[in-house]
Design goal:
CATH class of the largest domain: Few Secondary Structures
CATH architecture of the largest domain: Irregular
Number of strands: 5
CATH superfamily of the largest domain: IHF-like DNA-binding proteins
Oligomer: single chain
Distance between the termini: 19 Å
Helix content: 40-55%
Shape: elongated
Radius of gyration: 18 Å
Largest sheet: 3 strands, antiparallel
Strand content: 25-35%
Strand order of the largest sheet: 1-2-5
Length: about 90
């Protein structure tokens, strides 16, 4: 499912116009992005939790030259599925 299909599904289920559903989806994604940027977690009960994880500095290899390179530590967004989502997928 891509973004336009998700907007269509939201519009149909919530009885909204496609434009309103698109704005609502954009607002929700933006709110999650801003919370993660502040290192907060976003928990949607029954769905899951978005949080920021840490990736340690490590050695890698340039695939073109084979030369060893240093990959810097990074903060990355992560998602942990909730029980409701896990049960729905079974």
């Amino acid at each position: 499912m891509n973004k336009s299909e998700l907007v269509d599904a939201i519009a149909a289920q919530a009885d909204l116009s496609k434009a309103a559903a698109g704005r609502a989806l954009d607002a929700a994604v933006d709110a999650v992005r801003k919370a993660l940027k502040k290192n907060d977690t976003v928990t949607l009960v029954g769905f899951g939790t978005f949080y920021v994880g840490a990736r340690a500095e490590r050695n890698g290899r340039n695939p073109r030259t084979g030369k060893s390179i240093r990959i810097k530590a990074a903060r990355i967004p992560k998602f942990r599925a909730g029980k409701g989502l896990k049960d729905a997928v079974k």
